Amino acid sequence: MESNEYREQRLASARELAAAGRAPYGHKYDHADLKDVRRDFAEGAAARVAGRLMTIRRMGKMNFCTVNDGTDKFQLIFKRDELSEESFKSFKLLNLGDIIGAEGTLFTTQKGEKSLVVKEWTMLAKALEQPPEKFHGLADREECYRRRYIDLMTNDETRERFFARSRIIAEIRKYLWERGFCEVETPILQDQAGGAAAKPFVTRYNALDKECVLRIAPELYLKRLLVGGMNKVFEIGKDFRNEGIDRTHNPEFTVCEIYEAYGDRTSMEAIMEGLLLHLCDKVIGTRKVEYGEKKEIIDFNPPYRRVAYKDLVKELKDL
Fold it and tell me: Of these four, 35, 122, 148, 272, which has the most CB atoms within 10 Å of its CB?
């Protein structure tokens, strides 16, 4: 079917669900995270879960589906003799991508699959668009980059990368706070771009009737804070550079800049070495990290090589 045919079919299912007393949107639903249900699994215990439908298998008097709530996946079993006639009949109106809530009893199948035998289910959100053909791991890289929400929905690795990024930022803050650094915010709209060599985005400040630029670096304002007597400062925020774009370069990106009075190059080296080890230990759990498509190993264990920038330029020139 064409995309609009799928949509019309799903709209019709939503109307049928509403007629059966299962409004397709707008519910609050208290539930446990699936990772916690799996961790604390106890045969015969009651559980209440929610998630997006990733698979559906209809098999007459017993139907199976898999839900994913972003923390884990879990199998739900819909048995005809465990549900009301309406609940079992309405199951046929569910589609991949729908979000449902379910409560019932935990059960282990003969194949050892931890599952929930559903006693009642709730329609939480009806998906009106057809999921990608490869719902279990979107492979088209351009589609992944353009529609991040689809990438997150279908690829566990991508979702874990987002969570890891959040933990990394939290640990950067923790590491610097414990060493007396103060987090600040400096202006993003500036009279002129400074602190780096890059082409800025130009915009207009209507209230002041003048042109301004989005910052290309926070450096100059952070250094002014040092002048003002804030001896240890850092900022995690956005920079904007109106230049090239590819898989590893984005015109809008996050930067962390750290400044300390009464120090020098060696004191900053010590901060960075300690920060990298802290992030490896607290977030990744190892100091040997795979990088890139070739899965090259970067060993973060010290000692670190210390070399002058001009000498690195000479090395690359000789290659």
Answer: 122
